[in-house]
Amino acid sequence: MRVISDNYHAPLVRQTSLSIVVAVYNEQEVLAHFHNQLAAVLNTLSNIKSEIIYINDGSSDDTWDILKTLPASGFAIKLFNLSRNFGKEAAMTAGLDHANSDAIILLDADLQDPPELIPKMIASWQQGYDVVNMRRSQRHGESKLKKWTAHAFYRLLAFMSDDVVIEKDVGDFRLLSHNVVQQINKLPERNRYMKGLMAWPGFKQITLEFERPKRAAGKTKWNFIELVALGLSGITSFSIKPLKIATWLGVSISLAAFFYSAFLFLETLIFGNQVQGYPSLMLAQLWLGGVQLLAIGVLGEYIGRIYKESKGRPIYIIEESLQLSQEQINENK
Ligand code: UDP
Ligand code: MG
């Protein structure tokens, strides 16, 4: 009798699987249109078993109801309803936690990340790349201020980031291999700046360029202050350079103060005490005060983040999860 050991696997030709992860927040105007466009692309992929994972990030409009009626032909749909708006980073984290395919692609629901590029991304992955970054060579339909600040921010982040290369002008739109997603899902932090976390594991990367179209319908979900907060979170999550800069600023100011006081001492010794110098006194006072407050603020940013991490709260809460067949997905999170 032939004994087949436990770890014997008959060679089998397995179909490649693909998960598309889409975080949605108040996208009722564009959702059906987006879904049709994505479905059309998925149905052109031969030999790939695909699924779409929609995470409803606590929408207050009809997004969840629309999601439940989307047609699934030729692919599966999984729906997750978060218990409130946790933010895009948390919603994407929820999506990645539930994506178990060979390749995972993150898409925005507003068609600014064109689904037509999916075959190209898969082709790169099939050539052996674990991460396919999508760089925006141009951004259409966005204000000059947003374009300029985004451009400046990506460069500042690249300069600041301590040990990770965070690609410039690459948003969340990218393909990740199963391996990379497993690594990202292991990262425990609650401060989830995904552009950084997705770059953190490394692996073999390629960057493709595309022109980012304008939103197909609906409005952007970020105002300027929220974008600044996201940027700050990016920098503080991936760099302690602001702390170092504060230290160096302190050292240089102390040195300058030392030499200036030596000069003042000698000047008084030689020329006597002339009561003068109100402007320089005021200037030094104000400037020092400003720098000190700034340095305390920088410290505060980091302490705030440590405080948030230390509470160890979950990153998101799933209120309801559905398969298109309307069966409950076994939820063990
Ligand atoms: N989004 C989300 N939660 C939020 C904000 C946005 O899931 O709190 C989703 C949104 O539905 C969209 C994607 O994140 O699918 C990108 O949002 P948006 O288009 O507003 O960002 P922009 O392209 O303007 O940077
Ligand atoms: Mg958008």
String of helices and strands: EHEHEHEHEHEHHEHHHE
Q: From the alpha-carbon coordinates, what is the Rg to the nearest angstrom?
A: 26 Å
Q: Given the structure, what is the number of helices?
A: 10
Largest sheet: 8 strands, mixed
Low-confidence stretches: 1-5, 326-333
Describe this structure in words.
The model is unreliable at 1-5 and 326-333 (pLDDT under 50). It is built from 10 helices and 8 strands. The longest helix has 34 residues, at 278-311. By secondary structure, it is of the alpha/beta class. The protein has an 8-stranded mixed β-sheet with strand order 7-5-6-4-1-2-3-8, sandwiched between helices. The protein binds uridine-5'-diphosphate and magnesium ion (MG). Residues 108, 110, 112, 215, 220 line the site of magnesium ion. The site of uridine-5'-diphosphate has 16 residues, from strand 1 and helix 3. GO terms for molecular function: glycosyltransferase activity. Its main location: membrane. It is a multi-pass membrane protein. Residues 19-181 form the Glycosyltransferase 2-like domain.
Layout of secondary structure:
Elements: E1 16-24, H1 31-42, E2 48-56, H2 63-68, E3 76-82, H3 88-97, E4 103-108, H4 118-126, E5 131-139, H5 144-160, E6 170-177, H6 178-186, H7 194-199, E7 205-212, H8 224-238, H9 241-271, H10 278-311, E8 318-323
Helix pairs in contact: 5-8, 9-10
Bound molecules: uridine-5'-diphosphate (UDP) and magnesium ion.
Magnesium ion binds next to loops.
